[in-house]
What we know:
Blueprint (H helix, E strand, L loop, with lengths): L1 H4 L4 H23 L7 H12 L7 H63 L5 H10 L1 H31 L4 H31 L7 H14 L16 H37 L4 H23 L8 H23 L7
Amino acid sequence: xxxxxxxxxxxxxxxxxxxxxxxxxxxxxxxxxxxxxxxxxxxxxxxxxxxxxxxxxxxxxxxxxxxxxxxxxxxxxxxxxxxxxxxxxxxxxxxxxxxxxxxxxxxxxxxxxxxxxxxxxxxxxxxxxxxxxxxxxxxxxxxxxxxxxxxxxxxxxxxxxxxxxxxxxxxxxxxxxxxxxxxxxxxxxxxxxxxxxxxxxxxxxxxxxxxxxxxxxxxxxxxxxxxxxxxxxxxxxxxxxxxxxxxxxxxxxxxxxxxxxxxxxxxxxxxxxxxxxxxxxxxxxxxxxxxxxxxxxxxxxxxxxxxxxxxxxxxxxxxxxxxxxxxxxxxxxxxxxxxxxx
Length: 342
């Protein structure tokens, strides 16, 4: 019954046994000859026979054996591989969803912090207005700092999840790691740069008891240096506490530009990974790389172009691909699956 299930019959095995017996009998005279008494002709015949193939089973029997082994092995291996691939795909989709949620949080925090809070408080062309705005709304600058800190922490987690998604779908491992490392370095710079913003908020907080001592120390330093220039607050000090606060605000602005250079490089690499692997649509990869170029050009202009403030048409042109890339990638991670585009 077992043989019938395998598609075999007892006649197959009888044929096989006869062939094996014939092969053994044909080799028996050669086995009985002493090696020392072998002639050159016998040695040549043995070499010739060893080069020939061994007797093959009948084609019907051979096909049945091969099919049985092939089907059995493929079934076991294919089943395990399918289960592993399915589990891996489900896990990667969870990572993609988490990355999409974090990306959305980063965009919301970044826009609200930079445009909604700092943009309404700080005017780098008008120091007096900036000082007045911050002192009238001291919590606004603090909230923008907390939002930036939330953005930095979320972006580090996003880098890990996004790298895992790209890795799981067969993206180039070297360039994926490079893109994520540049992104994490950017967040390290941004997080440390928040100290400049925090110091500025402390210097302009009139409720702090040590603020008067700092103002007096600045005034004494100017008098010792012979600086008799009148400061903006009329205190007779060329470097007053308000000017020092503005200096830290400027440091924060330029530190932000330094961080965006690393972010731009990360976006260029990420766009190349997306373009080559086609895990996401190719247009999204192209937009991501263009956004990275825009970040690099806009940020390096702060240091390479005299008088560049980032408020003109050049900065707006550089930032055009950013909206397509950032919102597109976040939306694709949230609502679509990271699979090769059709």
